[in-house]
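Handoff note, outgoing to incoming analyst
You'll be picking up this chain. Sequence as last confirmed:
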Amino acid sequence: RFAYRLEIAPSAKAKPGFQLKLPGDAISVARNGEAKFKINVERTGGFNEEIALAVENLPAGVTVSGGDKIPKAKNVVEMKLKATKDATVTVKSVRITGKAKAGDVEITSRAILAAATIHDTVRNTMKVAVAVPVPFKFTGVFESKFGPQGTTFYRRYTIIRNDYKGQLTATIADVQIRHLQGISCKSRPVPKDSDQFDF
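Most recent structure output, in case you need it:
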């Protein structure tokens, strides 16, 4: 059984203000590449003014553009990260802060990511990672087949090397037991002169 308490009181008028919202806990951008994300704002107490944004602690070689402010009466802005071809491969905890005025009062808000569960915590930074772009791709034909228990099942994949001539290693991506469902496999080297492999 559960007990609940209900209170009835006069409504309290919220003070003018705002809260910035992060899109997630992490984002990656490849060297010489770009990555876009959006910052949302929750306005309270009738606040409707322009909000100036500042981004702090970006990795070396990464710049942000396209979103230095959230216009008056708008609730979202898109930002774009751009990394140079020699940007430092690293991960940084980036802070995004908004400043605005409600009358003569200056308001400051740090962008947060709300807790997803009761075991989670509110976060006020977002990890920004600089990655090395993968020089190759691999593709496979979509199939839906059954593999009887105790047997070996193979799939064929094609490699699009894009001038990459080195040796590759094929391995399984999933590691959680609930995803594997009893399947196991060994990593397999793919010769540097091969553009197809069975796995």
